[in-house]
Amino acid sequence: MDFGTDFTINVLWASLLGYAFGSIPFGLILAKLAGKGDIRQQGSGNIGATNVLRTGSKWLAAATLLLDLAKGLVPVLIAWNLFWQEVGWTALFAVIGHCFPIWLGFKGGKGVATNAGVAFGLGWVFGAAYAVTWIAVLAITRISSLAGMSAVVVTAVVAFYFRETTIAYVLTLIAVLVLFLHRENIKRLASGTEPKVGQKG
């Protein structure tokens, strides 16, 4: 009974840790500080780095990308030291926090950069798989959404390949969430109207 109670409490803290970091809307904050206005009223309305890039500031987009990645990486690294058995919950809720931040009425980003940080936090192999896939697909297609979706799927597959079952299930849940949030992008990809990096829209 004590074990069960401790486990439940650890799951709660692990989840809150991930959500607290993940829900920080860096894209929105940085855009406002830089005088770019409310990023939610521009481009796709997303608070992620791709939409920040549409403000015309590559440095602002890069900073958003790094910080969104960090808010997935940092809580997972903390969780490894505090409650390693529940680290999967931290990873999952870091992405959920980014996608559904309570501070913005649960309307956030699509989880790609934050999942990259989570992948690196869970293991360098997963981070490497994510980075290589993302860079390769982006270089070939110049379509950010396709690169992101490809990366999350490949990373989950790699986790299953290495028989890291718990991590694989967590990454699969995240991949399903990311794909769901990209459903409009998927429709545009199918119709050939998905914008490439540097294009408006």
Keywords:
mainly alpha; 201 residues
Roughly how much helix do the residues carry, as a percent range? Answer: over 70%
Distance separating the two termini:
55 Å
What quaternary form is this? Answer: single chain
Mean pLDDT: 90
Largest sheet: none
Give, in order, the helices and strands: HHHHHHHHHH
Radius of gyration: 17 Å
Principal-axis shape equals globular
Which blocks of ≥5 consecutive residues have pLDDT under 50?
none
User: Strand percentage, roughly?
Assistant: under 5%
Total number of helices? 10
**Number of separate domains:** 1
Instruction: Decide which structural class fits the backbone.
Output: mainly alpha
Number of DSSP E strands: 0
Describe the structure.
- It is a single chain.
- The chain has 201 residues and is mainly alpha-helical.
- It has one domain.
- Helix content is 72%, strand content 0%.
